[in-house]
Amino acid sequence: MTLSDSPAAQVRAACSAAADAAPAWAALPLARRAALLRGLADALQSARDALVPLADEETHLGPARLTGELDRTCFQLRGFADQVDAGAPQPVQHDAAIPGSPPAGRPQLTRVRVPVGPVAMFAASNFPFAFSVLGGDTASALAAGCTVVVKAHPGHPRLSHALADIASACIAAQQLPVGLLQMVQGWSVEVGLALVRDPAIHAAAFTGSVRGGVALWREANARPRPIPFYGELGSINPVVALPEALARQGEALATQLAGSIALGCGQFCTSPGLLIVRDDDSGQGFVRQLTQALADTTPHAMLNTSIRAGFNAGVARLHGRAGVKTLLAAPARGVAPGPHLFATNAAGFLADTALHDEVFGPACLVVSVRDLQETLAVLQAVQGSLTVTLWGADDDTADNRRLVRAAQAIAGRVLFSGVPTGVAITAAQQHGGPWPSSTNAFSTSVGPAAMERFQRPVALQDAPVWLLDARGQA
Length: 474
Ligand code: NAP
Prior knowledge:
single chain; alpha/beta; Aldehyde Dehydrogenase, Chain A, domain 1; Aldehyde Dehydrogenase, Chain A, domain 2; seven-stranded mixed beta sheet; 15 strands; 16% strand; binds NADP nicotinamide-adenine-dinucleotide phosphate
């Protein structure tokens, strides 16, 4: 298709091709699926020297970070290929027939999972490789046996084109249908809306803002036939620093936390945006150390001017707000913003819901609490987060159990050491938390289980032998 086509025509053509290719892709032997995923990883790796500078030009994330992210993307693609080779997309749960009437007797039942059909994928601005055209959402949908239409992010259009070209060449080389993986883009929200509305699309995956994600989630649910919408949205990732941890290693933790707040200029969905600390000498000392450590960081330029404008508006909202003290407002260095640190107390945080919103960038809000009760109340007010970090909850005490329960109630991942930035790609990972951090807290967008978002369970009753031999895949 050409860029002169209207957005609606582009999207319709891509969805139609994705629908045409879907049955053939779902029916191909798993070895072909794995071969494509490995081919994409190899092609991506071979093009690294051209792609990383292009990504840097468009995102300012720096060659080191982008090289690491490209490697991570290849690791994801190969990881899903290994999963496909191991038969993970076609799990089978089999119950033999038992003669007699129900409930003791039963027919033979076999539960399988089938690909849902074409998936709409919204690339993220802050992960130009790992959550973009060939990122984790695309890899997991392809591994699940689904075709994919990617909505490119306008923040890295030339990189997206280069990645789509790599994908097309790889698909052609393996003699697979063009409709298997395609890309659409445009400068109007109409492209994304048309994609989610298209009747050929059966599921959508998204990483981005709460506003954009919720708009598309509403659209997905307003369709005559609603579809699942897996959105990873904003998250403030509370860190609870208990006195036990601060007494042991306060200074090291302050440096580590400052590094995490400033990492990637704070443009991570897991960036720690809220520190909960006791209002005592050790807590106040830790906040002083954190202020100094954060002042010593040197964030780089942000992804684009609109994300920078969003950061400026976010910190402006906190400066001078009733009940909020500015601890650090480091000046911008050229195009790079300065890190910011704000402080309030539990009562202030609970009373002002504007303080619960993510400020995307190198900023954090310290909430001082008098006791466990206030800590629990602050966590509860957060409602939904990708992560909660608990430092100093190592002993089995009634208080720590209550803290863990409160953290589990609002987060998809609970950490007991380290910082929330850096998401390991592994089977035990859970990247997705209660609303508003995700639109579906029951799934993960990182790790092999991400594939399950794009498959639907089907029970086969008294199925013929040929179908069981094919693991339920007709
Ligand atoms: P975004 O504005 O949510 O955009 C992401 C994608 O959704 C883009 O392709 C965009 O399309 C589309 N979109 C946005 N609003 C839409 C709407 N109302 N209807 C249809 N499509 C829509 O995210 P962003 O551009 O990456 O960043 C903006 C803000 O999002 C940041 O400042 C930050 O606050 C937040 N963010 C958070 C995370 C996180 O992981 N928590 C990650 C990235 C961004 P078009 O722009 O092409 O129309």
